[in-house]
UniProtKB/TrEMBL annotation:
Keywords: Glycosyltransferase, Golgi apparatus, Manganese, Membrane, Signal, Signal-anchor, Transferase, Transmembrane, Transmembrane helix. Gene3D superfamilies: 3.90.550.50. One of its GO terms (molecular function) is galactosyltransferase activity. This is Hexosyltransferase. It comes from Eleusine coracana subsp. coracana.
Amino acid sequence: MNSCVARVTSFLVGLLLSGRTTLLTPPSSAASGRHVALFAEDCDQMPKLGGGKKPNDIMKEVSRTHQAIQSLDKSVSSLEMELAVERAKRNGGLGLAAPAKGLLPKAFVVIGINTAFSSKRRRDSLRDTWVPRGERLRRLEKEKGVVVRFVIGHSATPGGALDRAIDVEAAATADFLRLDHVEGYHELSAKTRTYFATAVATWDAEFYVKVDDDVHVNLGMLMNRLAKYRSRPRVYVGCMKSGPVLSQKGVKYHEPEYWKFGDEGNKYFRHATGQIYAVSRDLASYISINQPILHRFANEDVSLGAWLLGLEVEHVDDRSLCCATPPDCEWKKQAGNVCAASFDWSCSGICKSVDRMRAIHSACGEGDGAVWSAAAI
């Protein structure tokens, strides 16, 4: 980073730490002009871009400057979110404020697999395919920074047979993340909100992923896809869609608050499909801090999209996260385009996933060694 950018960085960091600028709110144009003017004279003394240089050298300078600006943007964004967390702590907070960075285990990505009490066979089908077991799971966390957990709350009668069964399974597998949440099909938006808050309070990760337990994932490819976006602040990655708002009662995915989306027949705003998506640390922290006032719509993926819609967020439409099952993902693998995730749109997951997961893994899996050569912390 050149001295001019470094000075701007130092100025912005000082401004944030002194509390003289509002978090997540850009300064006024007049103030911006005054701040920029402070550096104009020094920056004018720097060699002009392209002054007698070859085109290749100019492009290298442009690339370095672009990377420096991206790094600055991410650093400021991270500082903003850390300060927001600290302010939430001092003021009692709106939600579950994450502990200070440095006190939590670091990770590249936390992958939370949404599961239910009745889904043990689904969980076992994943453990038999793409979810590592035992020591391999621990090694994946330690060496590659990839945390994989089945995410579940508790029953309406805590301590009952359902909870005891999960306790026994968790003791044997050590691959659960338990939430302070009452399980229920119509509570998925609340569960997602609690998952992000709990994950942020447990691991300091660059990305947090939510995936359903009837989806096939190639962990190495998922890591590689997310690594492309690690230098960008406030990233929301998934297969973006915009389906109809269903106002008719009794139909699947009925939205009781359909009137909020305009006239009948309207579509939702663009959001990631709910089978699998990822958010960067900044966004997961935002959800954690503000969770009590984040409105929940009937559909979990719509709820998440609504929480992020009004923010300065980059929506990344990554179609590698929504391949179809064989032959689609198999053909793509043979062509050298291994999918990060596969499922059947008709079933909102893999149809008959318990019976088919092993065959899909065999046809579309990236191979056991792929995750160990993928991007790390």
